[in-house]
Amino acid sequence: MVDQDPDDVRKKKDTSASDEMDQLKEWHFLWIEAVAKSWSDPAYRSKLLANPNRYLDIHALLGSEVTLTLKDGDPSSDAWRGSFWLLPYTEVTLMLPVPPATGAAWGYAMAAYEAQIVGASTTLAGRPPPGGGGGSNVHTSNLSLGGEGTLVAFDQMVRWIHVWPQAVALAWHDAAFKEHLLSDPVLALWNAFNFQFPGGVLLRVQDVPAGAPYGTWDGTKGRWTLPPIALTLILPPPPESGSEQAMALGAYASSGRTHPFTLCCC
Fold it and tell me: Considering the entire predicted model, what is its pTM?
């Protein structure tokens, strides 16, 4: 495996011409490569955990709105079980922007919000595992970016870009829905929009903190200061047996969690 300097990669590739489907696949390959190298190179693993954007977002596709962090998986629970993986959920935290001061501006502000998040979004999408989400925080994942999986992921991403602004707008108008969205966002999105949130994602929705310098509408400029998105991925621990690493990596790449492609970050 060639250890490329991320700065050199940035210079060589014009990301503006990247097709979204290709970006989706590229994220997958970068993640699998990072997982493999982290198993054999402790120094690299430390650098990856300290600065994941440098190695996983080498074309700056996430944008400034997304805060990407990695956490070490717990070998006692987040592990290779000889023929399958058990992995915790990816953690995603979204914030509800503050509605404009005057209700008359809500329609225009929401149209601008959707336009901005479409421009800021990246191809982080996925499909739920067979059987749906379930209630456990740990589950056997079964996601793939090959063939149908890529199309399902892409379709889900496109839907999400429009569902989230609708959820924000409804939360502005409906206090009961907002309370449900803050307490159980996955169920709230399903009930209101028939949208099945990607499996393997622990979604949290919060209000923008009072006095925060983001999440507000600037009527003069006709633009939002978008609130940050927190995206936390789990770096899987290597199999206990070194002889099983190749098998485990192959299973992870082909039918394991397709991190970090579980959400269109907007």
Answer: 0.71
Of 224, 208, 214, whose CA–CA distance to 105 is shortest?
224
Residues 65-79 pLDDT 10s: 788 899 998 888 878
Question: What are the pLDDT digits (tens) for 182-215?
Answer: 999 999 999 999 998 877 788 999 999 999 999 9
**In Å, how far are 45, 61, 160, 264 from 54, measured between CA atoms?**
12, 12, 27, 20
d(CA 37, CA 27): 15
CA distances from 39 to 2, 34, 35, 176, 239 (A): 15, 9, 6, 47, 9
Joined tokens for residue 200: 């393997």
Q: What residues contact residue 37 under an 8 Å CB cut-off, 6+ apart?
A: 1, 3, 44, 45, 48
Coil, strand or helix at 86: strand
